[in-house]
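User: For a reading group we're discussing how well predicted structures match intuition. Take Alanine--tRNA ligase. Before you show the prediction, I'll give you the sequence so everyone sees exactly what went in.
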Amino acid sequence: MFPEGTRTAKEVAYVTAGRLIQQYQHICLSKGIDFIRIESVRPHDATTLFCSAGMQQYKPLFSDPSHSGTVANSQACLRMGDLDEIGDGTHLLHFTMLGLFSFREMTVGNAIDFWLEFLGTLGLMPDHVTIHPDRLVEWTPLYGGCVPIAPDPECMWSDGSISGYCTEFYKDGIEIGNIVNPLGTCIDVGFGLERLDMIINGTPQDDALGTLCETVMTIVESGYRPGNKEQGYVLRKLLRRIHKMGGTLDHPFFTEEVERQKRLRAKYLRLRDRHSEMSPDWWFDTHGIDLSDIRESTEE
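Assistant: Thanks. Here is the predicted 3D structure of Alanine--tRNA ligase, as structure tokens, for the group to look at:
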């Protein structure tokens, strides 16, 4: 399914990632924390097209004062906001988040101890951590002097209705995860599996074309197909980008999209003089033609 030359590397990455998830699951279960693994990027609510964070399904529990407990997961996530950043060595569209969520049970100190212990089992100690200045005095002692600490006023998290201070973990200049304290009573931890893998094993994350192909297959395997709206449109957009980059994908959806673009381009060339004054929205709504793609291809 992947471009020539990337399949072996991707398969190795999958095996390594699977081992990291198993290690994380083991430490969670050893501490009596329920663990679930979710490989679909389908969203858990209507606020996003795809699941963008491991905490998404637990948002109602953060604001329910009657609920207490702790859970953990590995959640497949997809964030289209990083589309133009992929290939820089650190940004991905599709990634897996290792999460720990506690509702009025664990403290920030408990969460810090947990993650320092887990990272220790991986042979990884953060180069430094950051803490919001408002929590610097209170949270610094929780690290026990084992890691350098820097204040950072950006250490805040909010989803619009729930917010909290956080502390972030860095290694080799890359943020590998953070611990958020929503409402001051809960814990929301997220560590990026692929970034941990990259640092521990030196797995490269700079293959933009491979990232696009992997993301497409994740969307397809989550039950979506190309279309003109929402998730289907995102999928179609990624298929077009793979084609424009000179890549290929061994899947019927890719073949169909390439043929579809040829038909739309021919249709645009046939109609453009007659409708030269029409807006991009009209072209898309009336004929399904995205002018940004058509014009790029006709100018090449």
